[in-house]
Amino acid sequence: MGCPGANTVRLKLSICAFLQAYERRFPTCPQMPIVLDCEIISDEAAEDGSQRNTKRRCTLAVDAPYIFKKLIGVEVVYFLQNNFLDWANRTLNIEAVNESFSSRIEIFERCRYYAHPDNPDWTCFDQTATLDIKNFFGFEHSMEKMGMKQYTQTTLKGKEIIEYFINELKAEGITEVDRWKPPADAAASSISRQSSKDMEQENGIADVNGVKRGSKPEILLDGDFIAKHLGQLTPMQESKLLELRKMLEDCEEDLSKLPSYQTILRFLRARDWHVSQALSVLKDSLKWRKENSIDDLLDDYKTPAVVTEHFPGGWHHYDKDGRPIYILRLGHMDVKGLLKSIGTEGLLKLSLHICEEGVEKIKQSSESLGTPVLDWCLLVDLDGLSMRHLWRPGVKALLSIIECVESNYPETMGRVLVVQAPRVFPIAWTIVSAFINDNTRSKFIFYGVADANTMKEGLEQYIDSELIPDFLGGTCKTLVHEGGLIPKTLYKMNSLEEDEQAEQAQQNKGTNGHGRATNNGLNSDHHGLYKTVELKTGYIHEVVIRNADVKSVLTWDFDVIRGDLHFTLYRVTKDLPQQQDAAVSFFDLNDFSEGVNYFKEETTLICHHKESVQGSHVMNYKNNYVLHWFSPSCGAEGPTQLNYFYEILSSANYKGSMTSLQSGFSSNSATSSCQSR
User: Fold this and answer.
1) Strand partners for 416
2) Which of 302, 512, 612, 641 has the largest CB neighbor count within 10 A?
3) Model confidence pLDDT, tens digit, residues 298-344
4) Between β-strands 35-45 and 51-61, what pairing exists: parallel, antiparallel or unpaired?
């Protein structure tokens, strides 16, 4: 029966300090009461003091139930430990084997302590162990479990014990331990010569051919650099940062330029400190940057005239944490005009240029302040936001940009301040938020239109009052363009119209001619959420939402592809029967009476051919809600055609992520919803 184990950790202290602290744990230490004594059997040292080989016989208390100790007839067991200390190469190798019951059970443990190859102030620790139980009085399985338990406890205690003796050294005034140096009159041994060679390689000393040996990073990741440029990290996080950097140096791909420690740190944080995952996405990002010449974007990008004259976005000073602020007046942006003027690729390149500017401004701010600044602040003004901003090609382009930015600029967004959010905002947020990383989504702070009186005060928590833009109640002028409609004379792109026509043709194929919902060509863009139905003259289509979540938000988006439709939202307080006839509404039945057991939550909206309608409503009751469409007549081209989608934003998400918007949905009257065409 065998049982192997392995462990690797890194300690944030120099190997020299560690070696001196390690000697203090013998013959006993309070953190390991199981060790009763350690007797030195032999102790040999090199003449120059560079090496020491110590053998000990250690007495350990049997950590087992009383009945088990009674059966095996012992209270203590003995282990033989061999410590080989090499001051010149800064390593300590420890091997331990059991002396007691060696014919029945073999326990072997090996530990290795050594200086971190990239940071001499850190000590690495590798530990492996094997347990081979041949025969142990019929208790082989129990012995294996106790062995693994003891191994785990010893591993967890190791770092705690060393830190205890390090603190003891500090209390005695010993804060630094110099590296071993050979005596001036001593002949250089092979070991010391090897040590000198290692030191030359670590410091990049040129050889006789003028080529530097070693491949250390140009920046030493020491405590001062971390404090100034990266912020507070745990020893394990620092270790993972170095590990990923080393993996990038050693990878076979041609990486002409290694990313900065700040960039590596962002990718690690985005992958929750999983080194292998971070390595994979970072390598993909570096490949993407090379293939698209992103490193040259700041120098080569030429801002299109339409962007200069009509794009409502720009940089604006810094927040209280030193983050550069980018203002985007999204509600003033002509999304369709931009896309038809510069195209999807042009909008993506503009977004990437902004991201590259942001990374550069982050670096400049950090250097100027002398403190870590790792991300920037986005201030989004939604004043003027309407359903025209949810034009499908625009949403598709936005989601594509979000995907690209999330993949290649993770953790660069430190805070997102969303101001003047109108009542239609939950619709946009429902669509977009699903594509935003959870960690990024947690950085959003919302201020609704109803919060206008307190918005400036809220912003002052993050931005100095004298820097709050004038259009938000402050005094600071900005260089951000106000946006507005882009003249059609600047349109250059026809592909968007062609895409829409292709979608139209595809969705016409998606109906079955019998007034029932089918999938259509829009599914590829909206993940199968949209359904299409055809309605003959006098027919209705009703969707029932059985709401059990008070204050959840119902959102809808539909297109009248052909003909005219009447749309109404109802709330029903009684159980609804199974619908049998597509020409008969629930509300045509005898036992339904308006104002008694059903209520019109939204006034009827007459929707014409090729109109798009979006809206939202807070469901304040645990009742049934009915989306109701009625076809008054059909034209010569055939039945009325409806393409629709609805979604429910839970009250938990609604309240948790958009608390400040609640007052914009304060009642169940018409003011609690918004419809737009």
Assistant:
1) 378, 444
2) 641
3) 999 999 999 999 999 999 999 999 999 999 999 899 988 899 899 99
4) antiparallel
Closest CA to 412 of 499, 471, 540, 324: 324
Q: Which residues contact 120 (CB under 8 A, 6 or more apart)?
A: 14, 15, 202
Q: Centre a 10 Å sphere on the Cβ of residue 151 and count the other Cβ atoms it contains.
A: 19
Whether 205 has a pLDDT exceeding 70, the answer reads no
Domains in the chain (CATH in brackets) are: 7-172 (3.30.530.20), 224-250+258-292 (1.10.8.20), 301-490 (3.40.525.10), 531-653 (2.60.120.680)
Question: Mean pLDDT in the chain?
Answer: 78
Helix, strand, or coil (residue 616): strand
Q: Between the ranges 94-98, 287-291, 517-521, where is the mean pLDDT highest?
A: 287-291
The answer to whether 594 touches 557, Cβ cutoff 8 Å, is no
Rounded to 10 deg, the angle between the 235-250 and 261-270 helix axes is 110
CA 558 – CA 531 distance, rounded (Å): 9
Residue-wise DSSP of 216-282 = --SS---HHHIIIII----HHHHHHHHHHHHHHHH-SS--SSPPPHHHHHHHHHHTTT-HHHHHHHH
Q: With bands split at pLDDT 50, 70 and 90, how would you rate the model's confidence at 667?
A: very low
Residue from 356, 246, 359, 257 nearest 301 by CA: 356
Percent helix, percent strand, percent coil in the chain, to nearest 5? 40, 25, 35
| Predicted local confidence at residue 361, as pLDDT | 97
How does DSSP assign 202-214, residue by residue?
Answer: HTT-B-TTSPBPS
96/83 Cα distance (integer angstroms) = 9
Length of the chain equals 677
- Mind giving me the DSSP string for 441-506? HTTEEEEEGGGHHHHHHHHTTTS-GGGSBGGGT-SB--------PPPGGG----HHHHHHHHHHHH
Of 284, 268, 282, nearest to 230 (Cα)?
268
Backbone φ and ψ of 241, nearest 5°: -60, -45
Q: How many CB atoms lie within 10 A of CB 148?
A: 14
Return the residue matching tokens 């990878």: 251
d(CA 335, CA 339) in angstroms, rounded, equals: 6
What is the reported pTM? Answer: 0.56
pLDDT at 157 over 90: no
Nearest to 665 by CA among 445, 460, 446: 446
Burial class of residue 91 (count of CB atoms within 10 Å of its CB; 0-12, 13-18, 19+): middle
